[in-house]
Description:
The protein is an alpha/beta fold. The chain has one domain (9-250): P-loop containing nucleotide triphosphate hydrolases (Rossmann fold), CATH 3.40.50.300. Helix content is 34%, strand content 26%. It has 9 helices and 11 strands. The strands form 2 sheets. A 9-stranded mixed beta sheet has the order 3-2-4-5-1-6-7-8-9, with helices on both faces. A two-stranded antiparallel sheet has the order 10-11. Helix 5 (93-101) crosses helix 7 (134-150). The radius of gyration is 18 Å and the shape is globular. Bound molecules: adenosine-5'-triphosphate and magnesium ion. The site of magnesium ion has 3 residues, from helix 2.
Amino acid sequence: MERVKTGIAGLDQMLHGGLLPQTATLVEGAPGTGKTTLGMQFIYNGIVKWNEPGIILTFEQFPSQYYRDAASFGWDFRRLEEEGKLRIIMTSPEVSRLDLEQVGGQIERWAREMGAKRILVDSLSHFERLSGDPVELRQMVYGFINGLKREGLTAVLTRESPALLGEAESYDEGLAFLVDTYILLRYVEMDSAIHKALLVLKMRGSDHDKDIRQFTITSRGIEVKSRFEGREGIMSGSPRRMAASFVEAFVRR
Ligand SMILES: Nc1ncnc2c1ncn2[C@@H]1O[C@H](COP(=O)(O)OP(=O)(O)OP(=O)(O)O)[C@@H](O)[C@H]1O
Ligand SMILES: [Mg+2]
């Protein structure tokens, strides 16, 4: 089956090849876990590796911040924008939602003009102020996501979770139903240091790895590593070691 690769090796492996075309993926995590980085990497790799133009829709950061953040990974977003392969749009949830509802809206025209295949929406959390009613809010987000799919875009949407460490109590079941793929980024305290964990919670229409993997952010972006061997309770934020003998027998060489 055709896949839209993120170009992040370990992640594509977990996704059994990559995302499915014209689906929406929610990347949720605490501040600083790397949601924006993952999204930018998805867009950047799409352009340079597969010649798939991309759009970044932002509700919080100025485009200049993306240029700067991307540059720290060696990604020249300014040049890609000049070449017409990337477009960073700063807007509001209200405007973009209404824009996508009409035929021939601005986002649709830009996407067609560029031949855009990928979009990063950073972040979906800003939709929450559109309505205090969870049902209405869900309908708005649903309409927005469908609008993106209608344009033929494969979307990565970020969402902040307020909990720094600990159980994912902010896990939003409503949103989980609206998206096709749900990726969680988490801080994990281990051996007196903070590590980062990544988990693919669900992927509609495909099998995926259920492992909880370690990842790091380096000067090349996100790198997904091995599983947390010999630990349990990773998603609680403070894992325990499994029985040492078990680890000796099955994990250590
Ligand atoms: N060039 C780099 N090399 C290594 N790490 C970096 C580099 N640039 C950024 N980082 C790390 O990436 C993290 C920020 O990632 P990012 O902005 O993607 O997080 P986020 O989840 O989007 O956060 P927020 O919720 O605040 O938007 C920082 O904690 C920083 O340590
Ligand atoms: Mg961010």
